[in-house]
Amino acid sequence: MRMNLRDVHSGLLRAVRALVADDPLLADSPLSAQADSGKPYLVLEDFDSEPWASLTFSGMRHHLLFRLEGPEDAVESVRGRLAGRLREGDLKIAGHFLADSELTQVSGAYREVGRISLCLRLRALTIEE
After folding, report:
1. Pick from 109, 116, 126, 107: which is nearest to 65 by CA?
2. Tens of pLDDT, residues 89-112
3. What Cα–Cα distance (Å) separates residue 125 from each residue in 2, 19, 94?
4. Which residues face 101 on adjacent strands?
């Protein structure tokens, strides 16, 4: 089943994907991230949004669930850089801006010696411009 995404939904997903694609440590796809590649990969597991409004603004609250897998040191490095770039709030989303975001670790598991799988949750608030 395919989700019916609004412009802001697909814009947020494209912006996060662009952040990830700009990271030189990340592999291009899960298929290219073999045990010997030394690069982690990021997979979108779940995405949900709901309308949000205050007295003066309207927007959307988004909840994204990611899985980040690969060599432990590289995964931790990518997670730190991703969290830092999200705090900067410079995601480009047509007609909206990122008002707030939080990246948290939901779980972590070792797959084999030296490799880890982290489940990360991104909560974001986008406001209509």
Report:
1. 107
2. 677 788 888 888 898 888 888 777
3. 23, 17, 14
4. 124
Instruction: Please give the sequence-ordered ranges of beta strands (E in DSSP) within the chain, or none if there are none.
Output: 41-53, 58-71, 96-112, 115-128
Number of domains in the chain: 1
For residue 21, give its domain range. Answer: 7-30+37-104
Is the residue at 68 inside a domain?
A: yes
Report pLDDT digits (tens) over 15-59: 777 776 677 766 554 444 444 567 788 888 888 889 999 999 999
Residue type at 10 in one-letter notation = S
User: What pTM did the predictor assign?
Assistant: 0.76
- In-domain check, residue 57: yes
Tell me the C-alpha distance between 33 and 111, whole Å. Answer: 14
